[in-house]
Amino acid sequence: VLKVCKTNKIKLVADLQDEFYTNDLRVVRNVVDKLSKSPIFIGFFMKDEPSISDFEKLANTRKIIEGLMPADKFVLVNLFPNYASTEQLGIDSTFNKIANADFGSYSFLYPSGAYNEYIYKYMEIVKPKVLCYYHYPITDKVRKSIDLSSGDIYRFLANLSTIRKAAYNAGIPFWNVIQSWGYLNTKPAPNVYEYRWMMNMTFVMGGQGVIAFPYRNLYEEGKGPENWRDAPINLKGERTIEYDIVKQCNTEIL
């Protein structure tokens, strides 16, 4: 993997395998030392979509791994967006109702009290070097609307605002995983204008990186738990129109 990354002049954030979740430094030291010697390697990806109950374990693993690496390397976690349920976040649902009580029927426009607590706890307990999350706002309703009054758009902007404030207060950068393919029956793969908008809004709000998941995984088109479809790279390993969209927008930003 390092050789491929070096050939293509890209950096590597390596997947942190399950055996790394341990207090036994002998299990991890050899791999970390070997990777850390490469200028291509910049850090590890630790976990996707953690709940609050995961934070203590993540904090412990972060300390162990980052303690074995040079200071400029880091461990990355991908947090839930603000439309995640209180069950997913690991917070009592009554917290959300109380926090949004003053907003009445407009509460969908604002970051939920539960979500703010989720981000606050993550920053307090895990203390990351980079704050990373995902948010996929492009829906059929957004695309068909003649204006941008959809709650999906406001939630995306509110999420950016919450993350920006948390990152700014901690003095660290933040990254946004933005929608690059379609899923469920309501979220299409973004066109070039939609993808560009998500990317531009992230950087306008102070983000220093965007991520697009390119692969179709192991499921056929429209299959899998969430009916995934129209990925930048399909099941056969072929590049699609979505690949060209991501590439074009990356080039524009660079």
Spatial order of the strands forming the largest sheet: 1-2-3-4-5-6
Quantity of strands, as a count: 6
What structural class do helix, strand and pairing data support?
alpha/beta
Secondary-structure element sequence? HEHEHEHHHEHHEHEH
Stretches where pLDDT falls below 50 for ≥5 residues?
Answer: 98-111
Main sheet, how many strands, which sense, barrel?
6 strands, parallel
Alpha-carbon Rg, integer: 19 Å
Question: Roughly how much helix do the residues carry, as a percent range?
Answer: 40-55%
> Separation of termini?
24 Å
What is the averaged pLDDT score?
87
Sum up the overall morphology in one term: globular
Describe what this molecule looks like in 3D.
The chain is of the alpha/beta class and 254 residues long. It has helices spanning 2-7, 25-36, 55-68, 86-89, 93-99, 113-126, 140-144, 151-170, 192-204, 241-253; strands at residues 12-15, 41-48, 74-79, 131-135, 174-178, 209-211. Strands 1-2-3-4-5-6 form a six-stranded parallel β-sheet, with helices on one face. α3 (55-68) runs parallel beside α6 and α6 runs parallel beside α8. The longest helix has 20 residues, at 151-170. The two termini are 24 Å apart.
